[in-house]
């Protein structure tokens, strides 16, 4: 136990760094001027850098380098549009940070070409949540300029594995900001941790842990760390997936023979078996309306994605391209499904459009798995291999933007992107 | 790869070791743990979390976001208690039976996959043919519109298939027809009119005669100046001589349009209504065109 705690303190070891590998052709040029610090001493955090990083990572913006800025305004009176036109800037974001018992960020966005203010706003919160406030400013700017709700002020869950030569590996379930910063270890074990999943309100998580030497599903409260073992059946206990209303959890159990999908009523823990097939049915994922579930099954001889309608009990197959389509996750629009698709022996992340029934391959790496989609549907986070190490990478749903979040140490896998989080 | 492969391994274990544990069937579950321990050597792939584990379990520590360890709440594990080691059946027959069932299951799964895929392909083909039909309809409609306005756009209507009065093809007929049709395709409408007229003189009862009448009707509408009366006669000839021809509905629709262009709204409406009443139950594109025309102009 003491060893586990000592490791928990070294949470920076699971830190992720970001490398952008591919952006859009014509990103919008935006200048994020360092925000004026209106407190004593040095600013605790460069908020503008957080915002700059968020916008860059979206691939839709090309931030202007600070060295190129001819002036550094922090109020509208200090803005001279010619300074920004001269360096081909399209939008300009300025701001001020002040601190009382809380931090407050005031910001203003300007359209350089039209020479007009676009909008202004502020964010305030605890001082140690400065990064979160920055992400929220980035969300507001992103939404204003793209029309799509921002998802920077969200969280990621992932599992990192530290190899111990000649000993047992360390598994850590880690919670981090959407840019990989501020990692916090939620669970540490020398037995595997798998399949982290979010509750729809973002307050709880579920996962599979082998700490009792066999797989069991646990639920954990994020604020308190309080946890509860939900299942302990013989055989497999895996793939927990909360329903959109939070009242039900889909899971895979093999207690009745071979793996099938079950629903657990979270109020009374009653189980309902919804697939009964001698083939393997696994990896349930809810449609956003909660009326049907996608799952992977090899009932057709090869793993493919099926949809189970909870009302009619009907099952229909959704994927027909290729010999392997698995681990589906559905975007909030209920239209885009991301999954693992095998092509010529390589595993890629692909997007299935449920309206056109077309499958688009998004990634060019070879061992991609565990896709997880951002709550605004813009980006897909997935696990892949780079130089034999497990890393996280992200790709936009149109395949145009790509970046990697390699861990500084160890293998990282099974990312799960949070829903929008309450303020 | 993903989760499934691991599951497949686990599932495979159940199947592979099946003959050893037939006796367990009565217990309603398969003891995966025992299987795993029994096949430890096979399952200890380094990265495989489903691989065998030593019996000793290490405690896991959970933290809240403030990173303080939390006490494990008792929880209510709902699982069954560990079962005693299962008795093993030595029945060779049972083993064979199991093997056969396993083979049948795999065969059924394979066939199931084929049925799913074929059903999917059928659905796609149906959709495609519907799309093609709609596309053809659109093009016909565009051709009709161009003809109606006296424009010079080519009528891209598909060649008329012979229908009502099957006639034996005469020597040289199809060559002559094709040559005339090529002129339509090349938008040499005046020459095409001459060619189709000559064609009908040479092969008045030929296999392609109905097609020639139809094309002549169309062509009289697109030549400059349009010859509405000649068009009316061509379409009427087609209808009178070959009432069962597949182009009859289209000819009827065109007659309606010709009347409309002549300023005879009431007469036009009669023809259009006849298209709908006579062919409303058929698949003819003329019905839709007639409905659209009425909706637009009446």
Give a brief description.
The complex is a heterodimer of chains A (423) and B (298). Chain A is built from four helices and 31 strands. Chain A has helices at 2-9, 47-57, 81-85, 130-146, and strands at 19-22, 28-32, 36-37, 61-63, 91-99, 103-111, 116-125, 155-162, 170-177, 184-189, 193-198, 204-209, 216-221, 227-229, 237-242, 248-253, 260-265, 271-273, 281-286, 292-297, 304-309, 315-317, 325-330, 336-343, 346-353, 358-361, 369-373, 379-386, 389-396, 402-405, 411-417.
Q: State Rg of chain A.
A: 23 Å
Share of helix among residues of chain B? Answer: 55-70%
Full CATH superfamily name of the largest domain in chain B? Tetratricopeptide repeat domain
CATH architecture of the largest domain in chain A: 6 Propeller
Description:
The complex is a heterodimer of chains A (423) and B (298). With 423 residues, chain A is mostly beta strands. In chain A, helix 2 (47-57) crosses helix 4. In chain A, 10% of the residues lie in helices and 44% in strands. In chain A, the strands form 7 sheets. In chain A, strands 2, 3, 4, 5, 6 and 7 form a 6-stranded mixed β-sheet that branches. In chain A, strands 1-30-29-28-27 form a 5-stranded antiparallel β-sheet, with no helix packed on it. A 4-stranded antiparallel β-sheet of chain A has the order 10-9-8-31, with helices on one face. Chain A contains 4 helices and 31 strands. Chain B has 298 residues and is mainly alpha-helical. Chain B folds into 2 domains: 1-50 and 87-110, no CATH class; 131-297, Alpha Horseshoe (Serine Threonine Protein Phosphatase 5, Tetratricopeptide repeat). Helices cover 60% and strands 1% of the residues of chain B. The longest helix of chain B is centred in the middle third of the chain and has 57 residues, at 92-148. The radius of gyration of chain B is 38 Å and the shape is elongated. Chain B starts with a helix and ends with a helix. The chains are: A mainly beta (423), B mainly alpha (298). Strand 10 of chain A pairs antiparallel with strand 1 of chain B, so a sheet runs across the interface.
């Amino acid at each position: 136990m003491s060893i586990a705690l000592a490791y928990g303190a070294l949470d920076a070891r699971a830190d992720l760094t970001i490398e952008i590998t591919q952006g859009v052709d014509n990103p919008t040029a935006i200048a994020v001027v360092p925000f004026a610090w209106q407190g004593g001493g040095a600013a605790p955090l460069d908020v503008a850098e957080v915002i700059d990083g968020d916008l860059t990572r979206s691939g839709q913006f090309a931030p202007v380098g600070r060295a190129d800025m001819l002036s550094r305004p922090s109020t509208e009176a200090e803005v001279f549009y010619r300074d920004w036109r001269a360096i081909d800037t399209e939008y300009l974001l300025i701001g001020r940070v002040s601190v009382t018992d809380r931090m407050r960020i005031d910001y203003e966005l300007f359209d350089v070409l039209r020479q007009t203010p676009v909008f202004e706003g502020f964010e305030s919160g605890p001082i140690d949540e400065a990064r979160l406030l920055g992400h929220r400013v980035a969300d507001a700017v992103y939404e204003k300029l793209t029309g799509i709700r921002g998802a920077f002020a969200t969280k990621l869950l992932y599992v990192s594995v530290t190899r111990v030569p000649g000993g047992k590996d360390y598994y850590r379930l880690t919670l981090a900001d959407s840019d990989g910063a501020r990692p916090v270890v939620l669970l540490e074990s020398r037995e595997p941790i798998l399949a982290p999943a979010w509750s729809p309100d973002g307050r709880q998580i579920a996962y599979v842990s082998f700490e009792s030497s066999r797989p069991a599903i646990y639920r954990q409260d994020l604020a308190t760390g309080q946890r509860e073992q939900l299942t302990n059946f013989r055989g497999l206990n895996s793939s927990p997936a909360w329903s959109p209303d939070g009242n039900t959890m889909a899971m895979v159990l093999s207690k009745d023979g071979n793996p099938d999908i079950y629903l657990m009523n979270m109020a009374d823990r009653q189980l309902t078996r919804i697939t009964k097939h001698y083939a393997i049915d696994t990896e349930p994922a809810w449609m956003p309306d909660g009326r049907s579930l996608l799952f992977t099954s090899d009932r057709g001889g090869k793993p493919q994605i099926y949809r189970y309608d909870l009302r009619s009990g009907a099952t229909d197959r959704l994927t027909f391209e290729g010999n392997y389509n698995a681990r589906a996750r559905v975007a909030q629009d209920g239209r885009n499904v991301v999954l693992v698709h095998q092509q010529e022996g390589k595993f890629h992340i692909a997007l299935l459009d449920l309206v056109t029934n077309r499958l688009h391959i998004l990634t060019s790496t070879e061992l991609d798995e565990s896709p997880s989609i951002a709550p605004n549907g813009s980006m897909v986070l997935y696990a892949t291999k780079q130089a034999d190490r497990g890393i996280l990478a992200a790709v936009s749903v149109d395949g145009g933007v790509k970046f990697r979040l390699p861990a500084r140490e160890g293998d990282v896998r099974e990312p799960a992107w949070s829903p929008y989080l309450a303020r | 790869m993903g989760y499934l492969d691991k599951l497949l391994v686990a599932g495979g274990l159940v199947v592979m070791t099946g003959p050893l544990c037939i006796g367990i069937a009565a217990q309603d579950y398969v003891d995966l743990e025992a299987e795993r321990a029994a096949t430890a050597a096979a399952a200890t792939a380094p990265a495989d979390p489903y691989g065998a584990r030593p019996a000793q379990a290490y405690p896991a520590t959970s933290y809240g976001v403030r990173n303080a360890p939390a006490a494990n709440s008792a929880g209510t594990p709902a699982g069954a208690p560990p079962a005693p080691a299962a008795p093993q059946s030595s029945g060779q027959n049972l083993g064979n039976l199991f093997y056969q069932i396993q083979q049948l299951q795999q065969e059924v799964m394979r066939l199931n996959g084929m049925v799913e895929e074929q059903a999917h392909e059928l659905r796609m083909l149906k959709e495609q043919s519907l799309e093609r039909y709609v596309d053809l309809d659109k093009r016909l409609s565009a051709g009709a519109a161009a003809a109606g306005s006296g424009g010079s756009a080519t009528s891209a209507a598909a060649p008329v298939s012979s229908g009502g009065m099957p006639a034996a093809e005469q020597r040289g007929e199809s060559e002559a027809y094709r040559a005339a049709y090529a002129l339509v395709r090349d938008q040499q409408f005046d020459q095409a009119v001459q060619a189709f007229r000559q064609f009908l003189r040479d092969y008045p009862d030929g296999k392609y005669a109905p097609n020639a009448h139809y094309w002549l009707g169309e062509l009289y509408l697109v030549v400059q100046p349009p010859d509405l009366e000649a068009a009316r006669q061509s379409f009427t000839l087609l209808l009178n001589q070959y009432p069962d021809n597949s182009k009859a509905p289209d000819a009827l629709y065109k007659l309606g349009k010709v009347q409309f262009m002549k300023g005879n709204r009431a007469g036009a409406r009669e023809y259009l209504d006849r298209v709908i009443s006579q062919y409303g139950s058929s698949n003819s594109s003329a019905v839709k065109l007639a409905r659209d025309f009425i909706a637009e102009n009446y």
